[in-house]
Amino acid sequence: MSDDFSAWVGKVEETADVLEPARSNALRAALGDPAPRAAGDDLPLLHHWLYFWNVQPPEGLGTDGHPAKGGFLPPVPLPRRMWAGGRLKFLAPLKLGERVTRTSTILKVETKVGRSGTLVFVTVRHELAGAAGLAVSEEQDLVYRDAAAPGSIPAPAASGPEPVAAWRDDVRPDPVLLFRYSALTMNGHRIHYDRPYAMDEEAYPGLVVHGPLQATLLIDLAARHVGRPIAGFDFRGQSPAFDGTMLHVCGEATEGGASVWTEQSGTRNMVATVHCAA
Q: Within 13 Å, how many C-alpha atoms sit on residue 39's CB side?
């Protein structure tokens, strides 16, 4: 692929949203914690992903349900796209009910060719500022890939070894949970709720569990156990997770914070490092 996307590097977009409590409370309820938070309370970590919707009319969507390529992000001519990982610094709490500005900058676009074909990586920095100034600095790694061959992505085994972890939650990612997370984030990607599309068009063995949902489960687990404010969170997807198989959300303390991961049938799906404030 010879496309030159250098013109997109340095591109900046600014959006704003109000962190209304209902959306965050809806996610907390969907994950089993129905106790509501009110305006003025801290926004739970990673719940900023529920805001700043990019809502497009039908003609502004791609066949995969995402906004069509070529707006803020470069028009990479590869059919599959996903969020591969990211790095976040939490500088100050965001407050429910406040107006927040997000400044997004494309930092780099890289093309690589490997055993799985051509990959294009796009790194985007988001800086979120509320009334008290800069609160969250985040880098997202997006990856665009060639189409997968039918049967090339294996389903998780029906059973596997029990994870060995100091902390552990077990979550069964059923289609209802995946639909609710898609709705709350305005994520139209059909691999998360449209089983025929996920299996027939993108060659997955089932519905795909969102990477950001897994990351949210991981940081929630860490926040309950580390006993110190979380200052940073780095995560990376290793293997897709699917509906219908128990997802183990695991973690253990480290000197600087925690090591956390999700696991299905003995395979790690997402790994992350939690950095705590000194």
A: 6
Q: Tell me the mean pLDDT in the region 93-110.
A: 97
Which distant-in-sequence residues (6+ apart) come within 8 Å of 164 by Cβ? Answer: none
pLDDT digits (tens, 9 = 90+) for 183-199: 999 999 999 999 999 99
Exposure letters 80-102 (e unless 16+ CB within 10 A, then b):
bbbbbbbbbbbbebbbbebebeb
> Looking at residue 43, what is its pLDDT?
98
Give the neighbor-by-neighbor strand order of the sheet with 117-130.
Answer: 12-18, 99-114, 117-130, 133-145, 80-90, 230-237, 267-276, 257-264, 247-254, 167-171
Indicate yes or no: pTM above 0.90.
yes
The neighbour count for residue 237, using CB atoms within 10 Å, is 22
**CB count in 10 Å sphere of residue 74:** 22
Q: In which element (H, E) is residue 141 found?
A: strand 133-145
Look over the chain and give the mean of its residue pLDDT values, rounded to a whole number.
94
Cβ pair 257, 273 in contact under 8 A: yes
Residues in the chain: 278
| pLDDT tens column, 13-43 | 999 999 999 999 999 999 999 889 999 999 9
DSSP alpha helices (H): ranges in 100-202? 175-185, 195-196
As a whole number, mean pLDDT of residues 164-174 equals 96
3-state secondary structure of 5: coil
Which residue is it, tokens 């106790």?
35
Chain-centroid distance, C-alpha 144: 15
